[in-house]
Prior knowledge:
2 domains, 3-stranded parallel beta sheet, 18 helices, 11% strand
Amino acid sequence: MAEWLLTGRSSSFSSTRQPGQHRGTRAARQAGSRTMWTRCWLWPLVAMCTADFFRDEAERIMRDTPVIDGHNDLPWQLLDMFNNRLQDERANLSTLTGTHTNIPKLRAGFVGGQFWSVYTPCDTQNKDAVRRTLEQIDVVQRMCQMYPDTFVCVTSSEGIRNAFREGKVASLIGVEGGHSIDSSLGVLRALYQLGMRYLTLTHSCNTPWADNWLVDTGDSDAHSQGLSPFGQRVVKELNRLGVMIDLAHVSVATMKDALRLSRAPVIFSHSSAYSLCTSRRNVPDDVLQLVKETASLVMVNFYNNYVSCTNEATLFQVADHLDHIKKVAGAGAVGFGGDFDGVPRLPEGLEDVSKYPALIAELLRRNWTEAEVRGVLAGNLLRVFEAVEKDSSCSLVSLSTEQAPGGEGQDQSIPLPELLAPHWLLLRSVSPSAEWTLTGPMSKSCCEQCLALKDQFLSELF
């Protein structure tokens, strides 16, 4: 009916008249006028019916293929608002207010898979980052324990599919920042055992082995010019374990190093298109070409300042980013990484996690096929995850010396002077009577002093 209303014409109405052409009878002219005004009156109805059609189609598709979102910071909000006291009645996820995410909103948004961000700030680097990372992993696990009818913690692509069948939200852990492993492959492996299934190589700070996006803005000095040799070992170990490599927050040099080195596809868990918004947190077109070549994935961030490069943005501009990445890297390279509960401003029409159907309806309106929509909802992420799992050598009978559990490659770590030299460090004596604070970048001589202090501390301790 909508198509007929949009294309129907009256033979009695014409906007132009050739010289000498008979204008017709007064009745005919009145009929044409009525037709014009009827069409104008019906136009809002047509638009409304069309919008309802796309919304209905979106919800039909999403009932079978729910959203897998690559990045949600609800665990950080639970720390910030309630100090991780999930038993606090105000922290009830069924009634939680003041956040982008709660259980009713997840249901309304057809979210069936969520990578929960396990995040600790950069100022915990070389201090208590590991402990605080473990505490946030504990929050995710307790969410699954406290709301078993809604959340199920999973660690595999098959686990996600099973959660879909059960009508639950598959809950996975993404560790947001390489500083959480404290430059230790042992810590990396331990986090894998606790459920980490992607690692963001940096947050908004360099690690001793990888450069972050602020290097590209000039707000941070390059340290590794991408990945250091140890950073390359981190990438190889992530491949071996079957953990997805996340390149959100890293420098362009780090992006390119990781994309070229990784045996498996990688992800950008919450990044958008640099060509549409020139924030260095976004992915430039030459990197999108590498994404295409490696069958990798960009999960679009909804933060206004990464969508429009201003404080205001709309759902339609988010769809523009999806269109652009599809155009450059292919429909299989696109996903969603909304960054809900991790950003202060979200687009009009995407104010919380319940709004996903509106975005899917907009993609359908833009002539995305049903197969492409199912891909951006979940299929593309599942494809990458399965490729990472398949590439993992953990299940192989025969491993190289470097790959084998306990092998030489797994024992490697950054030497202490190399680890400390480019960073700031707070040293505390084991003696309560003294405290030393080093307040500048560490030089080689300063590191030698650190080692001497360490020997002194150990002699006092024993």
